[in-house]
Amino acid sequence: MKPIPALKPLAVLAGTWDTVIRWSEETHKLVGGPAQLSGTATFEWMERGKFLHYEFGPSQWIIGRDESSPQYCVLYSDDRGISRFYEMTFSRGVWRIWRDAPSFHQRFEGRITNRGRTIHAHWDRSTDGRKWIRDFDLTYTKTTTNR
Predict the structure, then answer these.
(1) What is the largest CA-CA distance in the chain?
(2) How confident is the model over 71-90, as pLDDT tens digits?
(3) Helix, coil or strand: residue 66
(4) Residue 147: what pLDDT?
C-alpha cells in the first residue's frame, strides 16, 4: 500500500520493529520492575495510506498530516484510558514528537540510522517546559517492511 503524498516521508517507518526500552534511573525508581524491557512495535498504513497506525504494547497512535503544513499530528491512546495529542516533525533522519500540556510536557527525539533499519530515540518529560528529565531511551531495529 502506498501512502498519500503528505505521508510519503514516513514510509521508512512502515514495518515491524524490535524495540528495547531502557528506563532512566529516576523513572525506574517510579515504575519499578526491570530496568530494560523488550517488545515489538508495528507501523502500518490504514485507510489506503491516509494515516499511519503505530502499535507498541498497550499504546496506539494514529499519525496524519495537513498537506499544507510541515508538521504531523499524533493521536495517542493506551489501555489506561489516556488520550493525548502530540505534534510531530520528520525530516532528514530526525523524528521529533512533543506536547506542551499544563504540568506535563513531553518530547521525543529519534535519529534514523543504518539506512532506515535502526532508530535511536529518547523521551523526556517536564512539569514546567523548562527543566527536562530523561524518561527513557528507546532503540528500534527493523525486522520487516510493510510498504
Answers:
(1) 44
(2) 999 999 999 999 999 999 99
(3) coil
(4) 58
pTM: 0.92
The upper half-sphere exposure of residue 87, i.e. CA atoms within 13 Å in the direction of its Cβ, equals: 8
Q: In whole angstroms, give the CA distance from residue 54 to residue 39.
A: 13
Burial of 97: CB neighbours in 10 Å, binned 0-12, 13-18, 19+: buried
Average pLDDT, the chain: 94
Residue with cell 514510509: 11
Cα–Cα distance measured from residue 71 to residue 85, given in angstroms and rounded to the nearest whole number? 13
Which structural domains are found in the chain, ordered by start? 5-145 (2.40.128.20)
> What does the alpha-carbon distance between residue 141 and residue 137 come to, in Å, rounded to a whole number?
14
